[in-house]
Design brief:
The protein has 165 residues and is an alpha/beta fold. 51% of the residues lie in helices and 15% in strands.
Amino acid sequence: MTASLPANASPARAGKFLVSTARHLRKSTAPLEPLRVLVCEDDPILALELEAIVVESGAVTCGSASTFDQARDLAGLTAPDLVLVDLHLDDGRSGPRLAEIFADSGLRIVVISGDTSIDSVLARVDHVFLPKPIQPAVLQELIAAAVQVKRAEEERASRSLTKPM
């Protein structure tokens, strides 16, 4: 980046220019955090497939959980941005409750299930529903969209932190 000050610039103006230029350079080179995705699925083969799709989509996996308690504990340790939730886990139909808890925490939710029945808990949760068997390309598009949303949020936050006072 090249920029220059007018020849008659005051030392104070030059200092402000250098500070704002340094902030701009710091902001533009700061690495963006990858999207973190937690998989809540009781079928170990499908859980591995979902994790592979997550990684292929440019996100990172926070691991997979097959029960309500495992999912809650793993989310507490890994701070995911997006959660893929099956409605039926190893401990029963605990997916809707998980989705509600995670959505109330501000996480994005994708429900992946073969069960299409309407659930009163799930009806209150902002989520995207993907029926099983899933189309990997559709999940990749959802993850890519979530990556873009996260990137935009980070850039907005970065701009608000680097505004001159």
